């Protein structure tokens, strides 16, 4: 497959590198120091699943250089979604599929609006990985799962092709029969993990081990699930319990990427995560007090560290 990855950060860099190392024709659309490092030294992935070095790397800031591809993978931060979809246009032909592996639950609608349902796949990436330095991706733990599927649940030839490419690359993957359900299941966990690690400035271990922070995390999850059900998503009744069990099996030191963004003074995905839950809850008359608390506590940092914030030594 010829694959374009827009956003070569933790998600796009990790999975794109493994696909490229397995022989797929992968192009990374990137910019800045990360692009320069990939061009000069390659793309290095450090992971408990095995390290990968891709060199040389097919990487460019200009999608016109890439040409039409079979699949566009969108892996940018949520505020850059529309920019990335517009950037993808030179790479999208009549038979190109476009899939978002971003956080949140709005990306599918954005892809549909840009390219139509016939070109849209739904996607979910479960991984904890970050850009450690330009040209280097650091993967925490071993969890690295891609789920994807047609919006109508068909196992189409293009879904089969992507599944085969992932399997050849040693990527754990699943063709999801109900991709919207899979997207919302991740959203339930992600909103809680991002909220609680950013709120407490702690990794998941101490959060899950303390009864008070564990209870708050469970409430955040339950509210997200209630909003999803109100939107017509068939989420299981025991979803919160299962997500808490999943939490207990993750590395103690794992954090959500939003904590890293908060600590570095970067923009946060908060308005699409806890803030998105609050917004949807108001529209659907579903109470979301825990998510509202998280959003209120962190909103002053949503656009980056505010000028009035005190820096810790």
Percent of sequence in beta strands: 15-25%
- CATH level-four homologous superfamily name of the largest domain: NAD(P)-binding Rossmann-like Domain
List unreliable stretches of 5+ residues. none
CATH class of the largest domain: Alpha Beta
Mean pLDDT: 95
Question: What is the number of helical segments per DSSP (H or I, 4+ residues)?
Answer: 13
List how many beta strands DSSP finds: 10
- Percent range for helical residues? 40-55%
Structural class: alpha/beta
**CATH fold node name of the largest domain:** Rossmann fold
Would you kindly provide a written description of the structure presented here, covering whatever features stand out?
The protein is α/β, with parallel strands linked by helices and about 325 residues long. The chain has 2 domains: about 1-175, Rossmann fold (3-Layer(aba) Sandwich); about 180-300, N-(1-d-carboxylethyl)-l-norvaline Dehydrogenase, domain 2 (Orthogonal Bundle). The protein is about 45% helix and about 20% strand. Strands 1, 2, 3, 4, 5, 6, 7, 8, 9 and 10 form a 10-stranded mixed β-sheet that branches. A hairpin with a 2-residue loop joins strand 8 (about 120-135) and strand 9 (about 135-150). Helix 7 (about 180-200) crosses helix 11 (about 255-265). It is globular, with a radius of gyration of 19 Å. The mean pLDDT is about 95.
């Amino acid at each position: 497959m010829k694959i374009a990855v827009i956003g070569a950060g933790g998600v796009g860099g990790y999975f794109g590198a493994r696909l490229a190392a397995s022989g797929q024709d992968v192009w990374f659309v990137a910019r800045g120091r990360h692009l320069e490092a990939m061009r000069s030294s390659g793309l290095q992935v450090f992971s408990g699943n095995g390290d990968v070095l891709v060199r040389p790397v097919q990487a460019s800031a200009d999608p016109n250089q890439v040409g039409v591809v079979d699949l566009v993978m969108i892996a940018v931060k949520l505020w850059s979604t529309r920019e990335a979809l517009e950037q993808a246009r030179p790479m999208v032909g009549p038979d190109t599929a476009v899939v978002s592996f971003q956080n949140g639950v709005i990306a599918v609608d954005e892809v549909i609006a840009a390219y139509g349902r016939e070109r849209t796949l739904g996607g979910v990436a479960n991984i904890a990985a970050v850009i450690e330095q330009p040209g280097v991706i650091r993967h925490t733990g071993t969890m690295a799962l891609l789920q994807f599927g047609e919006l109508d649940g068909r196992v189409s030839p293009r879904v089969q092709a992507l599944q085969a490419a992932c399997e050849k690359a040693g990527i754990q993957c699943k063709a999801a029969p109900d991709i919207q359900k899979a997207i919302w299941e991740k959203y339930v966990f992600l909103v809680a993990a991002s909220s609680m690690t950013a709120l407490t400035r702690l990794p998941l271990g101490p959060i899950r081990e303390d009864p008070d922070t564990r209870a708050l995390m469970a409430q955040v999850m339950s509210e997200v699930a209630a909003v999803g059900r109100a939107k017509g998503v068939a989420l299981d009744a025991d979803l919160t319990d299962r997500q808490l069990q999943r939490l207990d099996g993750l590395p103690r030191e794992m954090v959500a990427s939003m904590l890293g963004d908060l600590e570095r003074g970067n923009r946060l995905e908060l308005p699409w995560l806890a803030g998105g839950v609050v917004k949807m809850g108001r529209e659907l008359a579903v109470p979301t007090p825990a998510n509202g608390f998280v959003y209120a506590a962190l909103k002053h940092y949503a656009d980056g560290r505010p000028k009035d914030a005190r820096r810790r030594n």
